[in-house]
């Protein structure tokens, strides 16, 4: 893919821990913030307050409750916040529907994101990308990928190949900390992979392993290393039973 992706040079990105192993991402520029997948309002509001930030945007990757559960409470606290997400009749808040190829601009900031559709985990799943950062929800994880609840293996394989073709120094901000289990599984698939073994050692005692680099995923993530949709399907099935 040769995409002309926006450059967000003025942003800082911080994780907010939610539920058991979710990450909500906060993108800060000056005193404004954009939040990705606010499954819970309380930790999001605490972080905004601590950092003294005004919430101006919310990006939603997909419909699952642990990604949208906090939206309504956040709107109550920041009534002007602009929300972007996939089309869904069940969302009970006002938002702008975004689709593949859309370029989103966040009001009062220089923040821009390009939208890529990645059906598989759910059919509505999308990811937000700029020239250096990818917010990928539950499509790709460190050394893993999302479970297929709605899409076909073919669709997910195609979605992951869109991500693989981004710049290899893209930082990957996924929505769960599943890394240790994922690496354990990856080693059963690809035990002789030197980069994977190195990574396993390196990440062993690290609590927050996200963001990762696309380059590292391409070298060690068995789901990105699958060359065909058939191969992907076999690995995904094994992981479901792991
Ligand atoms: Zn999900």
Supply database-style keywords.
242 residues, alpha/beta, Metallo-beta-lactamase, Chain A, 2 domains, six-stranded mixed β-sheet, 25% strand, globular, binds zinc ion
- Beta-strand fraction estimate: 15-25%
Give, in order, the helices and strands: EEEHEHHEEEEEEEEHEHHEHHH
Largest sheet: 6 strands, mixed
CATH architecture of the largest domain: 4-Layer Sandwich
CATH class of the largest domain: Alpha Beta
How many angstroms separate the termini?
33 Å
Low-confidence stretches: none
By DSSP (H or I, 4+ residues per run), the number of helices equals 9
CATH superfamily of the largest domain: Ribonuclease Z/Hydroxyacylglutathione hydrolase-like
Number of domains: 2
Query: What average pLDDT do the residues reach?
Result: 97
Shape: globular
- Percent helix: 25-40%
Q: Count of DSSP E strands?
A: 14
CATH topology of the largest domain, anyone? Answer: Metallo-beta-lactamase, Chain A
Class from secondary-structure proportions: alpha/beta
Q: How do the strands of the widest beta sheet line up side by side?
A: 1-2-3-4-5-6
What small molecules accompany the polymer chains? Answer: zinc ion
Radius of gyration: 17 Å
Structure description:
The structure is a single chain. The chain is an alpha/beta fold and 242 residues long. It is 32% helix and 25% strand. It has two domains: 11-99, 4-Layer Sandwich (Metallo-beta-lactamase, Chain A), CATH 3.60.15.10; 118-242, Metallo-beta-lactamase, Chain A. It contains nine helices and 14 strands. The strands form three sheets. It has a six-stranded mixed sheet, covered by helices on one side. Strand 11 (140-141) and strand 12 (144-145) form a beta hairpin. The longest helix is centred in the middle third of the chain and has 12 residues, at 153-164. The chain is globular. The two termini are 33 Å apart. 43% of the residues are buried. Zinc ion binds next to loops.
């Amino acid at each position: 893919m040769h995409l002309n992706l926006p450059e967000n040079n003025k942003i800082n990105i911080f994780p907010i821990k939610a539920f058991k192993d979710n990450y909500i991402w906060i993108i800060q520029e000056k005193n404004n913030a954009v939040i990705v997948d606010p499954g819970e309002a309380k930790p999001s509001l605490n972080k905004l307050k601590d950092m003294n930030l005004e919430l101006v945007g919310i990006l939603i990757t997909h419909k699952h409750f642990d990604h949208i559960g906090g939206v309504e409470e956040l709107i109550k606290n920041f009534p002007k916040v602009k929300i972007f997400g996939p089309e869904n009749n069940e969302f009970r808040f006002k938002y702008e529907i975004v689709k593949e190829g859309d370029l989103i601009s966040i009001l009062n900031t220089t923040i821009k994101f390009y939208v890529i559709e990645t059906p598989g985990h759910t059919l509505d799943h999308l990811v937000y990308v700029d020239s250096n950062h990818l917010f990928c929800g539950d499509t790709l994880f460190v050394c893993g990928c999302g479970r297929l609840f709605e899409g076909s293996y073919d669709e997910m394989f195609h979605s992951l190949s869109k991500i693989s073709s981004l710049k290899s120094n893209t930082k990957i901000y996924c929505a769960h900390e599943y890394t240790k289990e994922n690496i354990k599984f990856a080693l059963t698939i690809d035990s002789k992979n030197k980069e994977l073994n190195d990574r396993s050692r390196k990440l062993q005692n690290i609590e927050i392993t996200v963001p990762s680099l696309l380059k590292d995923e391409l070298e060690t993530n068995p789901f990105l290393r699958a060359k065909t949709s058939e191969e992907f399907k076999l690995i995904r099935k094994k992981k479901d039973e792991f």
